[in-house]
Design brief:
mainly alpha, 242 residues, 2 domains
């Protein structure tokens, strides 16, 4: 009986030993798997970090190149000092931490946009000034002045071609439609022969150089004094002045 107990104990002991070995092996396998998983994660993190750094470096280089073009386009036009400073801070991007490269790149891109907008505004202002100068030059010719007067008379006073015909004869007689006309004996000035010429300042400070301003004053003078160009022309024919 005692031998049977011992035999059973031996068998039971072997079972515990086998189970203990199996559990130990399973733990080792799980640990190895965890270590492999951690190593894999580390490898992947390294790959992702390398990709992020390469992308940041490429973006920084492209941004610096774009900034150079923008700085060149801004020279002599607008203040680009903030952009130049931002570029200077980004130029050593290879030695900077990834977060700093990303932040400085975004900052530089923002400065590029600001300078580009300022340059566009500057160029638009120059184009507008050039267009205005060209229009002024066109208006200041006798033919240009006639067209300005025709349009202004119709739009502001409702005077049609019959009234413009009278106006055309009146101011042809007075000044030949020249904005620089000046009567040395009387001091009458400009297309409408304002006496003195400074009266036309009420229509605009540029009365000496702008035919349209002289015309605006002259039409108002006719409307208030005679009611229409035909009436002013009739008076001029009768009295030799208006």
């Amino acid at each position: 009986m005692a031998g049977g107990v011992l035999a059973i104990g031996a068998i039971a002991g072997s079972g515990f030993a086998i189970n203990g070995v199996a559990t130990h092996n399973a733990a080792l396998q799980e640990t190895a798997a965890l270590n492999a998983s951690a190593a894999d994660r580390s490898d992947r993190a390294g790959v992702y970090s390398g990709i992020a750094k390469a992308h940041a470096a490429s973006s920084a280089k492209v941004t610096i190149d774009a900034a150079g073009v923008t700085l060149a386009s801004a020279e002599g036009k607008v203040d680009a000092a903030p952009l130049a400073a931002s570029v200077a801070s980004l130029e050593g991007f290879e030695l900077l931490p990834l977060d700093d490269v990303t932040t400085l790149t975004k900052q530089t891109q923002s400065e590029i946009s600001a300078v580009q907008a300022a340059v566009s505004e500057h160029e638009a202002a120059i184009a507008a000034a050039a267009a205005a100068a060209a229009q002024l030059a066109a208006n200041n010719t006798p033919e240009g002045a006639r067209e300005v007067a025709r349009t202004m008379a119709a739009e502001k006073y409702g005077w049609g071609e019959d009234q413009f015909a009278a106006l055309e004869k009146l101011w042809q007689k007075e000044s030949g439609w020249s904005y620089t006309a000046y009567n040395a004996s009387s001091g009458a000035t400009g297309i409408p022969q304002s006496l003195p010429g400074s009266k036309m300042a009420s229509a605009g400070a540029d009365w000496e150089t702008n035919a349209a301003t002289q015309i605006a004053w002259g039409l108002d003078y006719i409307a208030r004094g005679y009611g229409s160009p035909s009436a002013a022309w009739a008076h001029s024919q009768s009295m030799n002045w208006y």
